[in-house]
Amino acid sequence: MNFPLSMNEISLWLAAMAIILLITSELLSSARYAGSIIIEKKRLRLVALALGIGFMITVIMRIYQPF
Known about the structure:
Layout: H1 7-30, H2 41-64
Helix pairs in contact: 1-2
């Protein structure tokens, strides 16, 4: 049974999610009206950084993958 996603697709998904979460955390930190939003900015930023690290790992895997 083959895995339905390739390494390129996983890498693209990780990069897109990391960018979206980082932008969201920055917008929440600069918003003055964020009192009604119940999202922990620190946790959101940590998840975004973890996805960014996952993206970098997939890039390194693609670099060292034999052709």
